[in-house]
Amino acid sequence: MKKTISLILTVLLLASLLTGCGSTEPAAPETTAQPQTMSVDESGKWTGRGGCCKLEITDGEVFYSSMKRGEGNTVYSSGSSLMSRDGAAIGDVWVYAYAPAADGVWYGEWQGYDENGQYRSDSRLVKLGMDGTELAVYDIPDRVDEIYLGADGLLYVCDTIGDVAAVYTQEGERLGSIDISAARFDQYSLRLEQSGDGSIWLRTEQGGSGYVYPINSAALTLGTEYALPQNTQTLYTGNAEHPFLCATDEELSWWSPEGGTELILVWEECGISGGDDMRSIIPDGDGFICLYAGCLARISPASPDEVKPKVVLTMAAPWEESAADFNMQSDEYYIKVKDYSEGGEFDTATAYTRMLTDIAAGNSADLYLGLDLIDMGTDKFGSNGLLMDIYQLIDADPELSRDDFWLLKALERDGKLYRVMGEFAIDTYYGFTDTVGDRYGWTWDEYFAMQDALPDGAQMLGYRPADMFIRNSLSGYLRSNIDWANRTCSFDTPEFVRILSAARDGSNPNESAENMNTVGDVYQAMADGRLILSGTWMIMPETFAEAEKTFGRRISYIGWPTPDGGCGSFVVAPTRTYAISAQTKCPEGCWAFAKYILTQSGGWGMSMYKLALEAQLRELQGEHKNMWGETVGATMNAEQAEDFLELVRRIDTVSIPDGSSIYKIVTESMQPMLAGDKTPEETAKLIQSKLSIYLAEQG
After folding, report:
1. Which of 458, 473, 628, 634 has the smallest CB count inside 10 Å?
2. Residue 492 CA neighbour count, 13 Å, CB half
3. pLDDT over threshold 70, residue 144
């Protein structure tokens, strides 16, 4: 059940942000993140609470999502295929649940939906040989979310949606469902686990506590209930001496239901990221094989001189976050994530508020992730002196300069850079060049002039509810109509009144989106001249060229109109921005992390690092693999690639997030106007008054 923060606490938080945090000289924090070294003292003696272990990557070329060992055979999954250790594909199938056998692997294949689109609860049990040969296929009535092959030679499957666990023979005979009436469990919490002797156990959760029960396959009943150790995140199969491995965010231990826990190691002491970064741990000799950040790795005992001391830095985040990739490659620094959602126990909005509460109380981390999640927190805390100007760190770096990155100007506030991110996406609008012109932006006068000249049956936009229209408008309007340094704004203007009128007059989505319910409808309307602009999010460079390929006509990414006619395309409101505390005792370590984020390519969007993005564009101009791993031909030509980079060069604005305080003030003030109770002129005056108060409070 989600926890909540009382309204009183929220009010106190806002008050503290608007008063105490508003001073230019921040008060000394009650606690400041102190750099620490790993558990090796100056004499080289191990001082850790757990054992001294090292982690070595044994295969970083292939991405593994999971691996399982059974009957002496280990099978690996990349998500889209099953494979043997030598990388040979056993089967190119999307599977979540599989169980190795001595001569192959069993997996459950969900049937999906029937011909009427209804959910199906049945599956197929499939056995593949190690060469991919299909050895057995059985239709079964149970959905297979988990599957294990027990030491008794039976197959155990679990349907977590239906709260069912069942037992099958390897000939496909269903022996029956396990009687789980004696178990304590919340809906959807049933899991299966396998102990070191090959026995299968039922695992459940209820009210935040976990339990396991041995399964009696002959009687189809459960045995004695055992409570899991506190904070258990994952159970793994143990060995002959220890039934299970128990992993938490903090440590790894052996666990016996009857004998308790035996600590193996504390992740942080060994410089290893635990939690979700560590998966599929399998005992192997005197150590363990595991998946660490998608790489195959080995954990083994080490001497203290093999574990290099690292400086520990704390990164605050409003959700579960991984720093394993950085920790894995850094010999000097270790990022410890402070998750304010506490593993999802708090929803994102509450976690964000909890993080801001800590900042307001002076409890500083070294790094922050997600300050821009709901409001543009980096702007607020940066202007109040709580965040470091990252330009200082870039300028001091002997290897990099500001010119090595895209879009830093868009991320600035008053000439300072308080946030960075690894990837970006673009929020923009496009039209035919022979209709809207060969340009990257336009003024509101130009937009309204084109709208007024439209022939009957044509419209500027396909879908334009008032809140969307205003959000897009604010992104460009704030650029020249809010003076953050002097805390003033200009919203009571004829231009903004006209924007409000346009938002009101086109706010009926059913009317404005008529006959444009699909992408195909939009394309057809543009081709017919009934629609002038279409919006798009570019998360990959190929998107830039797709419209020209579709229409066979030159496209202009003119974007949204702005007061000054500047670039109307915006950086998508960034939630994954990183900021550095002005109070950190280790700015060089924080910069090492920020530099790593800035220079990595890949992820959900396009790289901020110029060399990486330019290399990707060159790749797209020839034969390459797409995001699904398929080999395809060129998806951009050289001219389109250069036009795309020119668009990126011109972007200097971040789109306003839906959770922004300014956005909320404007949209809430608009409601009487949309209901017909106020005029646009009255609404503009109301917005001017409210935003003036808001800005004054920020100083």
Report:
1. 628
2. 10
3. yes
